[in-house]
Backbone:
């Protein structure tokens, strides 16, 4: 069973050519140096970058052809960070994820229960009434995740979700993503090879808009590949990696 | 949510009932409705049309302010940011310089031209970038200002006075048919904008945020720009540019009611209308029979109130 299938996928900038199939569940991390095309690829999967070259289908239908609302009920996208200008409360931000289900102006009981559930999963219920702008980076990231979960997606697409988090929150976020990946597809762009190594079922490494490696973390994240793609010497001890430039 | 909207409606109704009774000469409502002169003329032909114009103008400017701040994700945006009102001003100034009497029509044409130019510039292929919208609008503002300065420089003494008065903005009694047309457009455009309140919430967070949740961001942005420009252009053609309403009312409401556009937009319509009616009443009465330009009063009343609101809120919410 597959979700996303890409054939010779490319974009004006960032991505040259990539072909792959993603399963319906599991945590897939996309790694690679700056400018390798990671965010572009994620943007195409999320239906935000078009027109693209080649093909990219989700559940058998070309991503660019999906009606936006219908697509948003099945795939959720999390931006790297949200720069909030206005005083939305945490609960309002979470409920925005229900937009693809909304039929009118007012929220339904189902919307509220979906939000409640998502806030419980992400441990954000305690500050539901707070101004989003007063949250710490870790709290904000969990709220954004909760908002995406209210979309009840089959695929969760995250752009560098751990970048602004401290070490403890990085680990707990990836642990949570690992849990979610048991029942849905989680695709996360990351710069942290250690998080990729430790938590993902599959790693895809991009280099200059092409796939340089794709497989289990152990298969892909070898010293040779890391030296070639990232230009650093990596050594593995006890499941963790250290680099020297 | 319903509470805030009902409260705003109550404030507006109160202000609108009191405002036409106040003024430099005392009138009695009974005599006005009985058709007795001069109470009848003062009430129905001097004060009431002006109150209605202030109501519609304040409502339109505040709704547009909320909308443009949201679309551009810029707290400093206001109805005049995207250039339409300077187009209206250029139109009016040209009319004054050429001695045309229809300044309103000329300013409407100016506003429409700017709307088309900005839209033409900002739409690239099937995209519409709010960033291009902002830059084009700001550029149109500067160019319009240059044209106005140039024409002002050539104008005679009396034309120059008329130009200054127009640019100050102000409310005058307008004929009822004009008011009816204005009311129709203002109510229709505001209702259209309000119908999309949940979508504005998402757009206020970000384009990708909204698009990945199923919102057609390009269509929504184009619709918001056109609706806001029609509201601003129409009101400006009748009142000239009245500053501050479209900037301060939205912010005051956000501080009080939060950022949800389902509350914000109706409250902006109601309280924006009430605010301008109140300011105009003050401008007619404070040093009567002399009038203070209403733009001066919106800034003088709104400014300190807003600073106070900002300060008291900041203390309680560590913002």
Residues:
């Amino acid at each position: 069973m597959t979700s996303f299938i890409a054939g010779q996928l490319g974009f004006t900038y960032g991505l040259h050519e990539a072909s792959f199939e993603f399963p319906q569940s599991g945590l897939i991390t996309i790694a690679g140096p700056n400018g390798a095309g990671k965010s572009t690829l994620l943007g195409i999967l999320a239906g935000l970058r078009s027109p693209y070259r080649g093909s990219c289908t989700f559940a058998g239908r070309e991503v660019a052809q999906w009606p936006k609302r219908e697509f948003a009920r099945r795939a959720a996208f999390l931006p790297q960070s949200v720069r909030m200008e206005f005083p939305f409360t945490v609960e309002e931000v979470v409920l925005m994820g229900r937009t693809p289900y909304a039929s009118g102006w007012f929220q339904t009981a189902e919307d509220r229960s979906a939000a409640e559930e998502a806030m419980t999963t992400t441990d954000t219920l305690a500050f539901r009434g707070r101004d989003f702008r007063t949250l710490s980076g870790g709290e904000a990231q969990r709220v954004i995740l909760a908002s995406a979960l209210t979309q009840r997606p089959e695929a969760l697409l995250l752009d560098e979700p751990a970048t602004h988090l401290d070490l403890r929150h990085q680990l707990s976020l990836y642990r949570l993503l690992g849990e979610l990946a048991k029942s849905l597809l989680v695709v996360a762009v990351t710069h942290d090879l250690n998080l990729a190594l430790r938590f993902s079922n599959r790693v895809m490494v991009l280099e200059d808009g092409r796939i340089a490696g794709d497989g289990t973390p152990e298969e892909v994240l070898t010293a040779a590949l890391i030296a070639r793609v990232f230009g650093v010497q990596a050594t593995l001890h006890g499941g963790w990696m250290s680099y020297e430039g | 949510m319903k509470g805030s909207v009902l409260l705003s409606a109550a404030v507006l109704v109160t202000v609108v009932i009191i405002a036409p009774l106040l003024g430099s000469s005392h009138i009695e409502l009974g005599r006005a409705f009985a058709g007795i002169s001069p109470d009848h003329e003062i009430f129905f032909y001097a004060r009431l049309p002006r109150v209605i114009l202030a109501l519609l103008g304040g409502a339109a400017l505040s709704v547009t302010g909320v909308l443009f701040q949201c679309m551009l994700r810029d707290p400093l945006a206001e109805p005049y940011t995207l250039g339409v009102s300077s187009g209206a001003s250029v139109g009016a100034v040209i009319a004054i310089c050429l001695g045309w009497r229809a300044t309103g029509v000329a300013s409407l044409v100016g506003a429409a031209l700017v709307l088309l130019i900005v839209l033409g510039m900002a739409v690239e292929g099937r995209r519409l970038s709010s960033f291009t919208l902002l830059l084009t609008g700001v550029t149109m503002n500067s160019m319009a200002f240059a044209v106005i300065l140039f024409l002002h420089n050539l104008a005679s003494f009396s034309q120059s006075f008329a130009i200054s008065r127009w640019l100050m903005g102000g409310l005058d009694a307008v004929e009822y048919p004009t008011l009816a047309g204005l009311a129709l457009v203002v109510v229709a455009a505001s209702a259209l904008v309000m119908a999309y309140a949940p979508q504005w919430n998402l757009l206020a967070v970000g384009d990708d945020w909204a698009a990945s949740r199923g919102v057609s961001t390009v269509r929504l942005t184009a619709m918001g720009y056109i609706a806001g420009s029609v509201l601003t252009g129409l009101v400006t053609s009748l009142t000239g540019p009245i500053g501050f309403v479209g900037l301060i009312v939205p912010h005051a409401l956000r501080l009080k009611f939060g950022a949800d556009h389902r509350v914000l937009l109706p409250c902006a319509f109601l309280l924006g209308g009430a605010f301008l009616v109140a300011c105009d009443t003050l401008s007619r009465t404070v040093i009567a029979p002399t009038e203070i330009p209403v733009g001066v009063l919106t800034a003088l009343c709104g400014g300190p109130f807003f600073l106070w609101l900002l300060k008291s809120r900041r203390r309680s919410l560590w913002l």
